[in-house]
Amino acid sequence: MSDRHSPQILTPRMWLTAFMGITRREALRFVNQRGRFLAALVRPLVWLFIFAAGFRAVLGLSITPPYQTYVLYEVYVTPGLCAMIQLFNGMQSSLSMVYDRETGAMRTLLVSPFPRWFLLGSKLVAGVIVSIIQVYVFLAIAWFWGVDPPLFGYITVLPALVLSGLMLGAMGLFLSSAIRQLENFAGVMNFVIFPMFFASSALYPLWRMAESSTLLHDICAANPFTHAVELIRFALYGQINPLSLAAVTGCLILFFAGAVFMYDPSKGLWARRKGGA
Amino acid sequence: MGAALEIDHVSHSFGGFQALSDVSLSVPRGSFTALLGVNGAGKTTLFSLITRLYNNTSGRISVAGHDLRRQPGAALARLGVVFQSRALDADLTVAQNLTYHAALHGIPRRQALIRAAEVLAQVGLSDRLHARVSALSGGQSRRAEIARALIHRPEILLLDEPTVGLDVKSRAEVVALTRDLTAQGVSALWATHILDEIRPEDGLVILHQGRVLADGTAARIGGGDLTRRFLDLTGDAA
Fold first, then answer.
1. In contact, B157 and B150? CB cutoff 8 Å
2. How far away is chain B from the Cα of A125, in angstroms, using its nearest Cα?
3. CB distance A265–B89 less than 8 Å?
4. ipTM score of the complex?
5. How confident is the model at residue A235 (pLDDT cuts 50, 70, 90)?
6. Which pLDDT tens digit goes with each residue over A47-103?
7. CATH superfamily of B5-78+154-237
8. Measured between alpha carbons, how far is residue A120 from residues A100, A123, A124, B10 in Å?
9. A22: nearest CA in chain B?
């Protein structure tokens, strides 16, 4: 075999090639799993078409920023459903990480000469790209349902979607490092996804929650998912919510650092795991 | 020129369980070295340390002269690994899997496709480039795994019980293929618990309960009856 020797230094082009390769694989997996795309789309659409229609009459909404007038419940709930797509996508990525670890495919990724933070980061970004495509398809369908934010909102929401997608994906990545078996994933659904979604501003404004319980309001206000929703909500109307921006960015750093720590061979649970990756 | 792989006084434990104790071995360049041990001997743990899935905190592991702790990127770039469990994505084609693996070593797609055709020819799977992995037989799948491990042109191949679950014919093919590769200059560390996969001229390391019990050529260690010798050694150690 000639020319066997691998290069000693990883050039910028090699980093880009690795990133593109990881992204391409995620895209191929996504395309091959059409059911996953449909499920990701049907879930928020059911909420929009059925839940929102039913609750429109029950839940009164006052004028709260970024809205400058009374809005239909469908309009209010749409940013929350965008974040829900990203939350489920993050968990789906987490599930596929655990699955890859059980089957052995994860080892292929981790024995690459690139540093682990880069490999995990690339996988995270690839997942976010997929989730953003899903969100835009959802927003396009919602437009036909009368949810029509200003046109520039479709552009200004993009950075918010990138940030919230990264934060929720990093959370999934962090969780995946702690889940030992695929069977434990149902627990994550019950103890992470549902509480995060329902204890947030996705379905009802926080002031409504405060009317029922101050403690519940405070929990919702501290929920990172609430800030992802609010970041998207404001961005969809061309505005920035500084508190949500700071909270989402902070959580992203925290979750990603946690995931890198946990996947480090010398630290975290990974180091104590017997029987392989 | 040093060895393709050198392991020097490496130990590893999981909590209170000592999985490896003071393991030292060397794989000369272009050699076929068998790592023989029963299930639970510590072969997979040792492979996990060499591939940096676990961190080695004691001793030294060096791949083609590159210290795994100090130069992990350079060391891993020279390793090709065939894991015991399936590492190919069954939903993707062989070409998609190989180009993905090449990308993980920074090899651009166009170059990766050329190399994929080359390595598949080497393992006798030229006609399966665009087949889905799920459509491959067990033997073809293992050979595709070897092709995956070869695509970045490693200096040493680690094969962790690669014939597990294969029928006799496929097993013979995979062993023969690996020997062909060593004849071409690739070094191989072949973990196994099957004695008839080992030839007298092969390098042999017997690992049992995390300790190296014997290290040399199979002919020297076996002395004409490797099975008897292996049972004597592991029986005494048990």
1. yes
2. 15
3. no
4. 0.84
5. very high
6. 888 887 777 766 666 667 777 777 778 888 999 999 999 998 888 887 777 777 776
7. P-loop containing nucleotide triphosphate hydrolases (3.40.50.300)
8. 13, 5, 6, 28
9. B100
